[in-house]
Specification:
The protein folds into 2 domains: 134 residues, no CATH class; 273 residues, no CATH class. The chain has 470 residues and is α/β, with parallel strands linked by helices. Helices cover 17% and strands 35% of the residues. The chain is built from 3 helices and 35 strands.
Length: 470
């Protein structure tokens, strides 16, 4: 006989509740699964966007570094007027960038922006970019505008997604460029030749008696036929050579050791540009009308004076071009001799000749009076004459400053100490012959003569950095 359990409504209710709970958990887990999926998808999209933004920002920063490098290697000529500044920078950048692998077939251009302001575009096609990384597709484009005497550089960076860009902006100011040219005792763009019993000595450091020629046309840019060069000899022509016979070079006469003091293919330093107005504006000038006592005077063009002897020069002597000026006797100088700016070299019409003894002290030794007050601090130069042929034939004792000219000749018994460097700024010969002895007491690159510069480059102003909307 079967035993039957009595029916209980409670058991049915419990089975129904379990089903409901199961359905609730199923819905809950399904919702969570959808949520997790949505969150994961959203996180992936956010990560992708962040990566794209980071790539674009990195591209903009890298592009600014590229622009900083390019603005740092150009040399803006001294005296470039403000209204020609942007055009000059454009020409320099185009010369450096066009045809490079960075630019490809693109070029640097200059055109007005939407507001009509002249602007340099790198690259010139505003729909093109300079590639940084092919893997990330990072790329940038830049613009340069002028604000006063500063340049404002804006760089836009982009990644694979062409709809996401980042922009940075930075202002740049001009900075004076330095040069190693004053580390050499005698330097010239032309050939340097010594002969006879001539010496080039450094004092107190023999290394100051060094020689440099940047002549690329002559196969022998330096020919030493004299007795001694106390420092090293350098030439920039990588296929050139230095000739010497029986001379002491770099402190040795041993032919097996002399080659250690000859350097071939050295980088060419920047040669100086002279602005004589620094001196002529510092004093009140008067025209030369004769006599042997010259104080803050200018010699008008085509005067061609010849001074017989016992001539005294104080302050600034400004020789205007063209002129042939000859000092045939003794001359005592306390000050500086300068010529016109931007004078074209002419060995026939532009000459300064010293036939007798020369004694020259610096502007700091001028009387402390109103006539010389603004001049006394403009130290470092004795003779600044680009465009002129200069000759010394007599003893010039000690001259307190550098000698800079286009063509320089020291012959006869021209002997003395130059408290600076002797620099030929044109591709013209620089010669020492006879018993010409020159001692270099150079101050090196730590003390440039007043009025001498090497152009400018651009350096960033960190405080002006901003992120902008491209």
């Amino acid at each position: 006989m079967r035993n039957f359990k009595a029916y209980s409504p409670g058991n049915a209710r419990r089975r129904g509740l379990a089903s409901v709970l199961a359905m609730l958990f199923l819905v809950l887990f399904s919702t969570l699964a959808v949520g997790f999926y949505a969150a994961t998808t959203l996180s992936a999209q956010v990560a992708k966007n962040e990566r794209t933004l980071t790539t674009a920002q990195s591209a903009a920063e890298s592009g600014m570094e590229f622009m900083r490098y390019q603005l740092g290697i150009i040399t803006v000529p001294p005296g470039t007027p403000s209204n020609q500044l942007l055009t000059t920078v454009y020409g320099l950048l185009a010369a450096n960038l066009n045809g490079t692998s960075n630019m490809g077939t693109d070029v640097v251009t200059m055109a007005n922006d939407a507001n009509g302001n002249p602007t340099i575009y790198v690259p010139g096609n505003t729909s093109h970019f300079i590639s940084i990384d092919s893997n990330t597709a990072a790329k940038f484009q830049g613009t340069i505008a002028q604000s006063g005497d500063k340049l404002v550089v804006t760089v836009t960076g982009m990644g694979k997604d062409g709809t996401i860009t980042r922009g940075v902006q930075l202002s740049y100011q001009k900075a004076a460029r330095a040069s190693a040219i004053f580390n050499y005792g005698v330097a010239s763009k032309g050939k340097i030749t010594t002969g006879g019993a001539s010496y080039i000595l450094g004092n107190p450091d023999p290394a100051m008696g060094s020689v440099l020629s940047t002549d690329m046309a002559d196969s022998v840019p330096v020919a030493i036929g004299g007795k001694q060069v106390s420092g090293d000899i350098s030439i920039t022509n990588p296929s050139g050579s230095v000739s010497y016979s029986g001379a002491s070079i770099g402190g040795t006469s041993d032919p097996t050791k002399i080659p250690q003091h000859i350097h071939i293919g050295v980088p060419a330093p920047t040669f100086p540009t002279v602005d004589s107005s620094v001196y002529t504006n510092a004093v009140t000038m008067s025209a030369y009308a004769g006599g042997k006592s010259l104080s803050n005077m200018y010699i008008p063009p085509n005067t061609n004076p010849s001074f017989a002897g016992n001539t005294t020069i104080q302050g600034v002597l400004w020789i205007q071009s063209p002129n042939v000026v000859s000092f045939n006797g003794n001359v005592t100088i306390t000050g500086v001799i300068v010529v016109d700016n931007n004078t074209t070299f002419n060995a026939t019409t532009n000459q300064i000749n010293f036939g007798g003894s020369v004694r020259a002290s610096g502007v700091q030794n001028l009387p402390n009076t109103a006539a010389y007050a603004n001049l006394r601090s403009l130290t470092g130069a004795f003779l600044l004459a680009p465009g002129y042929a200069i000759s010394f034939k007599g003893d010039f004792g000690s001259v307190a400053g550098s000698i800079i000219a286009s063509q320089i000749s020291m012959t006869g018994n021209a002997t003395g100490t130059v408290q600076g460097s002797v620099i030929g700024v044109d591709n013209q010969p620089l010669t020492l012959n006879g018993s010409a002895d020159i001692t270099i007491a150079s101050t090196g690159t730590s003390n440039y003569p007043a009025g001498v510069s090497f152009g400018s480059y651009y350096t960033p102003l960190p405080d002006t950095y901003v992120e902008i909307e491209p």
